[in-house]
Write a structure and sequence with these properties.
Layout lengths: L4 E8 L8 E8 L2 E6 L7 E4 L4 E4 L1 E3 L7 H4 L4 H4 L3 E6 L11 H7 L12 H9 L6 E4 L1 E2 H8 L9 H16 L4 E5 L10 H8 L8 E5 L7 H15 L2 E4 L13 H13 L4 E5 L4 E5 H6 L18 E5 L11 H8 L3 H11 L4 E5 L3 H9 L3 E3 L13 H16 L5 H7 L2 H6 L16 E4 L20 E6 L2 E5 L2 E2 L12
Parallel strand pairs: 1-4, 1-5, 6-7, 7-8, 9-10, 10-11, 11-12, 12-13, 13-17
Antiparallel strand pairs: 1-2, 2-3, 5-18, 14-16, 15-16, 18-19, 19-20, 20-21
Helix pairs in contact: 5-6, 7-8, 8-9, 11-12
């Protein structure tokens, strides 16, 4: 361990968005020692002529807070070049800890050590023998559930104090910021004033307010403006989670949503978004039913039809995985709403993949300079969304090399330097002397996602080597036994 490597003759994308350059990178003891013309050093030489070298990718939108304990090799992220996850998005989180909720999703977690504080949780992460690094957000959802519950009201003064104490505790432990999921329970029951008040807690720490907004469909623009207002009045920067436009009736609204972001930036607000490069999302079946997707379509997720909803995971009835809701409507001889309710009565935790976006919006958002990359992958059994395995290579292969939506250096900037800077993870994200030696080496000519909706558990092509803390985590396209992942803290 702690070998000295000279990565030689690379096409270097340094994470800044600048044009690539040819050069060498010297790494030792987990750090980048030198970049440029480096000769006559006592090091193991790895000649990567003709291949691209970039900082390890940062997944700005992950849900692996617990999964890292269940799947410590994290192959679905590592094999696509991800070296750091930002966990706790959409208002989810690990404090206050609920073993019942966690075991519901991950039965393998039965009997794991429990934790009461962020510090205890982070220590377990550091002991988890996982393969990639993990930053985290303080999730609004479990905090609200433990105080206010699923009630649509403002917290009392006492409840506010308790909620703020948990948020402060997380920020003191190095959290990147606060996340909300305003389309989901219990976040949907909170109002703007509550979120402004809570977000004021992260402002002294230069924390970021991450939000899965209240509406990504007919009221997208109002939701973008609400998110911006929370950041402005709380005095913190803003991250709009998986910026998208759902429902055919709303396609094209990305023009206005991006204009709202630009206007806020022109007023001095630090506001960005993240995106996954697919025309289908993934969530719980309960969520789209609760959001009236099969009736009025006005609940925040847009309208949906049964043929556009794929059952991806059902622990109670795996036989329905891979079927569409339309298939089951025919089987049950029921309309969509009633068929969905029948399914939920048997298994309330069904996960689905739902097609609802259009390519023009995806490309427009991706090309915008404020957009970063987040997989939003959820590693559940069954047929997970292919973004879990292919998000980052898809950006590089399809949207950069094939479609020319953005340049390769812009794409890499969005998944490295921009993400690190936004998250205040100042020890990574660039190929620069003194920073962490988290590095991905890939073939620009072949990198592409291979995971599909029918066959989602397929690694991408074109990832050659991945270094974590200066050691091989992936070597010649094969994962090693390195398990160097640790907590990445805001600095």
């Amino acid at each position: 361990m702690n070998k000295k490597y000279l990565l030689k003759n690379a096409t270097i994308y340094d994470g800044t968005g600048s044009n690539p350059f040819n050069g060498n990178v010297l790494i030792e003891k987990g750090k980048i020692i030198e970049v440029g013309e480096i000769e006559n050093v006592d090091a193991e030489i790895i000649d990567i002529k003709g291949k691209a070298l970039a900082p390890g990718f940062i997944d700005m939108h992950s849900h692996d807070d617990i999964a890292m304990f269940v799947y410590p090799d994290m192959d679905f992220k590592l094999m696509q070049g991800v070296t750091t996850n930002v966990n706790g998005n959409c208002g989810s989180g690990t404090i206050p800890y609920s073993s019942a909720d966690i075991v519901k999703w991950y039965p393998q977690m039965e009997g794991i050590p429990e934790w009461d504080t962020y510090g205890e949780y982070l220590e377990l992460v550091n002991q988890s023998n996982t393969s990639i690094h993990s930053a985290f957000l303080v999730g609004h959802g479990p905090i609200r559930k433990a105080t206010v519950g699923n009630e649509q009201r403002m917290p009392t003064a006492k409840e506010f104090d308790l909620m703020k104490s948990w948020i402060k505790e997380g920020m003191e432990e190095g959290a990147v910021g606060l996340s909300t999921g305003l389309i989901y329970e219990p976040g949907r029951y909170s109002n703007t004033e509550e979120l402004i008040e809570l977000s004021k807690t992260i402002s002294p720490y230069d924390g970021v307010y991450f939000s899965h907004m209240r509406n990504e469909a007919g009221h997208l623009i109002e939701s973008v403006n609400e998110t911006i207002k929370i950041g402005e009045e709380a005095g913190c920067s803003v991250e709009i989670s998986h910026h998208k436009v759902s429902g055919e009736e709303n396609w094209g609204k990305s023009v206005q949503s991006l204009e709202a972001i630009e206007d806020a930036q022109n007023r001095g607000l630090n506001v960005h978004s993240d995106q996954y490069p697919y025309n289908a999302g993934s969530t719980s079946l309960f969520a789209i039913v609760q959001n009236n997707a099969f009736t009025t379509g006005d609940g925040g997720m847009g309208s949906a039809t049964g043929d556009k909803v794929l059952i991806s995971s059902s622990s109670k009835d795996p036989s329905i995985e891979g079927k569409t809701l339309g298939d089951l409507c025919d089987e049950y001889d029921l309309p969509e709403q009633e068929a969905a309710q029948k399914l939920l009565s048997n298994d309330p935790d069904i996960f689905i993949v739902i097609e609802g976006m259009v390519e023009d919006d995806i490309a427009r958002i991706l090309a915008h300079p404020t957009t970063m990359i987040g997989s939003d992958g959820v590693p559940l059994p069954g047929k997970p969304h292919p973004r879990l395995y292919g998000c980052f290579p898809r950006v590089l292969g399809k949207y950069s090399r094939e479609d020319g939506v953005i340049s390769m250096q812009e794409a890499i900037h969005k998944m490295t330097g921009l993400s690190a800077t936004k998250s205040n993870l100042n020890d990574r994200g660039f190929i620069k002397k003194g920073l962490n030696a988290d590095i991905v080496i890939f073939d620009e000519g072949t990198i592409i996602d291979k995971a599909t909706y029918d066959n989602p558990r397929v690694y991408p092509e074109g990832i050659i080597h991945v270094f974590i803390d200066g050691e091989f985590a992936v070597k010649n396209g094969e994962q090693t036994d390195l398990r160097a992942g640790k907590v990445a803290k805001r600095s």
